[in-house]
């Protein structure tokens, strides 16, 4: 099994623990990486994928939704101010996610239903959500991260939600596997 790091840390352990308890003879090998591995070439039976899928011969089944939050440390917001709308993010220092395509365009839906794409910039661009979170907690800038990563720091007051009345992007979560034939039980 392969999957992205954040999902692999925050969601998969509980699911895999229940699965292995129900099927004690099955051995699960889980490899976490934020790159898209080639299932066939690299010998994986199953992948967890986040985002829209590219056309392929793989079999895919949607299993969930991945939600995002926009937030920053209280220290950052005290020093630089809190944006009142997505356009103000253009002037903010943002920590960009190299796994988002495009990384510098953050989508929002306003209280009235209007879609806005915030063009953002930042001197720090990272390909790992946990590292982006650590940078945000240290006051490096505003982040657009999976809710799975920021729930606890938001609850503890170590992060503050930015633009809380604006909806953020959601992405589908799929299970992907090479074929319906010869699938391990």
Order of helices and strands: EHHEHEEHEEEEHEHEEE
Give the helix proportion (percent range). Answer: 25-40%
β-strand amount: 25-35%
Secondary structure class reads: alpha/beta
Uncertain runs: none
Give the overall shape, derived from the CA principal axes.
Answer: elongated
Distance between the termini: 14 Å
Rg computed from alpha carbons, rounded to a whole number of angstroms: 18 Å
Number of strands: 12
Largest sheet: 7 strands, mixed
Instruction: Give the oligomer, counting copies of the same chain as homo and different chains as hetero.
Output: single chain
The total count of helices amounts to: 6
Mean pLDDT: 90
Can you describe what's shown?
- The structure is a single chain.
- This protein is an alpha/beta fold and 185 residues long.
- 25% of the residues lie in helices and 32% in strands.
- It contains 6 helices and 12 strands.
- The strands form 3 sheets. Strands 3, 4, 5, 8, 9, 10 and 12 form a 7-stranded mixed beta sheet that branches. It has a 3-stranded antiparallel beta sheet with strand order 7-6-11, with no helix packed on it.
- β6 and β7 form a beta hairpin.
- 24% of the residues are buried.
């Amino acid at each position: 099994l392969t999957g992205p790091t954040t999902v692999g840390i925050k969601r998969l352990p509980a699911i895999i623990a229940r699965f292995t308890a129900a099927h004690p003879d099955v051995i699960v090998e889980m490899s976490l990486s934020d790159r898209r591995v080639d299932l066939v070439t690299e010998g994986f039976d199953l992948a967890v994928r986040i985002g829209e899928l590219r056309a392929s011969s793989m079999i895919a089944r949607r299993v969930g939704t991945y939600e995002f939050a926009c937030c920053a440390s209280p220290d950052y917001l005290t020093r630089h101010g809190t944006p009142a709308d997505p356009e103000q993010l253009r002037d903010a220092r943002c920590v960009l996610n190299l796994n988002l395509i495009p990384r510098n365009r953050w989508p929002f839906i306003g209280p009235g239903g209007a879609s806005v794409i915030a063009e953002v910039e930042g001197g720090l661009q990272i390909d790992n959500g946990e590292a982006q979170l650590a940078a945000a907690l240290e006051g490096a800038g505003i982040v657009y991260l999976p809710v799975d990563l920021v729930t606890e720091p938001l609850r503890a007051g170590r992060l503050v939600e930015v633009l809380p009345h604006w909806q953020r992007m959601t992405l589908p979560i799929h299970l992907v596997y090479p074929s319906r034939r010869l699938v391990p039980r």
